[in-house]
């Protein structure tokens, strides 16, 4: 290809073509194109009315072919808007041998006539110097294995698995418990967003469980945990530990004879410990696998079950198994747990049997629950005449040992359970003590429906629940609407507990080095626009592992994470080539780079260090810590920055002032916005777009200051992972500059935001004035 | 847990303790000496303004000014660790230190007042850290609770029911600095345990305020007494309520007979400050150090030692009370 040949040429012999766009007057009305053309030294200098048109493409391509151009400079609008188009227009030239000089957003739109022409020449010269140092590089394509591990077999995990498996991708559901189904199997009824009714949750979930079981592409691993994991070049290597079931689920026909002869009774966690099960048990009738399992913690190994099992399915000596698993993506569907009610001693959960949780109430009301659906006061056989529900137990609480967030579903859960009670026991008085009722959208109709059914509401958070001298429960609460203190005598209290991150979420996040929020939920790559991606490429999240949400939302997120997995699997991913590479002849495995990489891209495998191209941002931080200089970044970026600085400072006139500004994609877009909004800034400002601000080294800055630049301005978006690093680096550099005899005030580091372009223009102006005062 | 000092301590005098229960201060000094805690008292120190501040007599600026003055005294005395015996002094000083450190305008205003009054005082930013320089005395003792165990000489009978009353301004204002729990406060319970005694732990209304509410006791007396009586009723079978704030102590000790009469109840609860209890358990003189003779409710505990002396004191007290009762 031509690329190989040209890259070996001497810089000065390179044939460069400069194409100037008039942009329908947007540029040419302000910039004197003729003057520019006569001041540019290049093989070809052409002007065109609309360079981005199809005719423009023909003109560029013909010139490249006829004049055997090695490099191209497009002097037109901002690369933010048209870079991809012109990378295509310069074919057959390598797209990275073209550079754009921004004559519109950062020249004709921000300066007036007499100033913009000189600026245009400078910008084009900078681009010419830059392309001279450009190397041809090709985008990197990564292919990842076509398989997915879903951690957690609740409604989120099941939904994601079904969605993925239907596209013929191998899917593994890894579930710690003896059955899939998660929390949804326990809650009895679910509220329906549109229908003003409660629906049977198991009737909705069971078909999905069946579908999951029948789907050939899904492999369900129950009683299985991830015990370690790592991610390299798009492949996750997981090590799974499968605990023994002690019963071969292929042989077990779930006849239940073993259960009859088992002498050990233990509390049944399916029923929130309100009933008993045997040590050999099936979690619930529809559980999957459709087989019994043994709770070895409680089993006495009497052997009764072994003797009675006609299928010979029981093996009390079964051992745990380690399973290695390599997959292309991981979906975290590790669910949630509930706030510990014991942390609120004032509500008496530990002291009084009659104080229960919403989940316990759901089991009591469940036809497959401990009372077969009959509402009874725990600890007695009587039906309650009054029930008080307490909302926000652990949620929306600023004090220590609580969560500041709203758990989002509890208002609806309380209304649902209250309504079920009202429906079955119309004479039972149900009072909900709430902070605010949050029943958004269609749920508001359900809320009204519940009020019509006679559910009473008191706005206030109970201070304490006590037993009076008659041994009755008393809820003490201030009705904040009437501002009266009320004491409600009641038979039962139901606490609506906050949703918390599960232990499983924290464990898997630690194993895969996935970031968590301050509340220990999985942190999204961006809370607004990347709601299911995590900070580890290829790892996604759905359901309550990411934060409190209801079933509908969990399923939506599950489907979204499935879609994200397809994106990765479908064609592999094309990555910009400016990423770090290791020279293994130089690398001495010191591992310094691993911890320095904020993007979690560097890992070690078989004692060798690797950089994952999928997550490397090309920030270059690893280069600075590598004592062996074993890491390089493709595309000759270092030299290109020097060359651009050189070009910007070329032909500097006496009395002229030049300030070099380094901005990355975000800062550059903000600077473009100044032009788009036709605001002005001093013509001394010369902006250089860099891949990452971190790639601008102290040497670059000192070079600029020693070779004619009066000032250097570095802008960085505070949300960038490298922000703190860059800020520290610049502060250090200022001290170094002082030693070099350079006034440190000539260097400025500043925050930039895309929408805050007026602020950036102002900062340019202030820095320009500051530079004036320094040189005077 | 935050770092807790055992030297350079300014024991911050409290108006209510000095006038109502001086035994708390003498007990604190006694316990500090036994535990080898280095402290001083500076008689230039003034009241924190607490009662006045919460009764709308002193505004925040005057309160902050007075705190700045007291801080300057502590610093110049080389005892910058301010340790209060009253929960209100604790919270007032913490808030003032926060304001002085974080609000430049207030700091300047206050330093201007010092200048205009020709006083040689100044508050330098961050010279007092609200978390690392201001403590309640229970925290100092809590830090030494293991050593404390070895110094206990007295035994009390096993059937005594002891409960704790944690002051609001210790638990409910600066949550993050509170030791021993905010939801289920128990720093006093732990200190009682260090004296080889047991508490009842959680009880109904454990976190309820004493009801004093500063001006509430005077301007909303019915409401104030209602709160206090609810708490007292929930404590009916408790023998001793342990306090850490003289205002709560006063509310219960002084008004218990009044509330009993008003609500037609009989209460047996005795009220002792935690420092009085510790000093007593270390064997301090009941009158000269612990100062139980200033209490309204006679403290009549069957201790293994000193029993006779108490009986004598309390008999005299009871006589006095009966006279007072008639007046009420």
From TrEMBL, chain A:
The UniProt GO MF terms for this protein read: 2 iron, 2 sulfur cluster binding; 4 iron, 4 sulfur cluster binding; metal ion binding; oxidoreductase activity
Instruction: Say which species the protein is native to.
Output: Methanobrevibacter filiformis
Subunit relationships: The ferredoxin:CoB-CoM heterodisulfide reductase is composed of three subunits; HdrA, HdrB and HdrC.
User: Annotated pathway, please?
Assistant: Cofactor metabolism; coenzyme M-coenzyme B heterodisulfide reduction; coenzyme B and coenzyme M from coenzyme M-coenzyme B heterodisulfide: step 1/1
Major enzyme class = oxidoreductase
Q: Which residues form a coiled coil?
A: none
What's its job?
Answer: Part of a complex that catalyzes the reversible reduction of CoM-S-S-CoB to the thiol-coenzymes H-S-CoM (coenzyme M) and H-S-CoB (coenzyme B).
PROSITE patterns reported in the protein's UniProt record: 4FE4S_FER_1, 4FE4S_FER_2
Q: State which residue ranges cross the membrane.
A: none
User: InterPro entries from the entry?
Assistant: 4Fe4S_Fe-S-bd, 4Fe4S_Fe_S_CS, FAD/NAD-bd_sf, HdrA-like, MvhD/FlpD
| Name listed for the protein in its UniProt record | CoB--CoM heterodisulfide reductase iron-sulfur subunit A
4Fe-4S ferredoxin-type domain location is 242-273, 290-319, 578-606, 607-636
UniProtKB/TrEMBL annotation, chain B:
- Record bears the keyword Transmembrane: no
Q: What is this protein called?
A: Lactate utilization protein A
- Tell me which UniProt keywords the record has, alphabetically: Oxidoreductase
User: Could you tell me which residue ranges the Cysteine-rich domain spans?
Assistant: 10-91, 163-253
Q: Which organism is it from?
A: Methanobrevibacter filiformis
Q: NCBIfam families this protein is in? A: hetero_SS_HdrB
Which GO molecular function terms does the record list? Answer: oxidoreductase activity
Give a Pfam family name: CCG
What gene name is given for the protein in this entry?
lutA_1
Q: Which InterPro entries match?
A: Cys_rich_dom (IPR004017), HdrB (IPR053571), HdrB/HdrD_reductase (IPR051278)
Kindly indicate whether the keyword Oxidoreductase belongs to this entry. yes
Instruction: Please name the PANTHER family in this protein's record.
Output: COB--COM HETERODISULFIDE REDUCTASE SUBUNIT B 1 (PTHR42947)
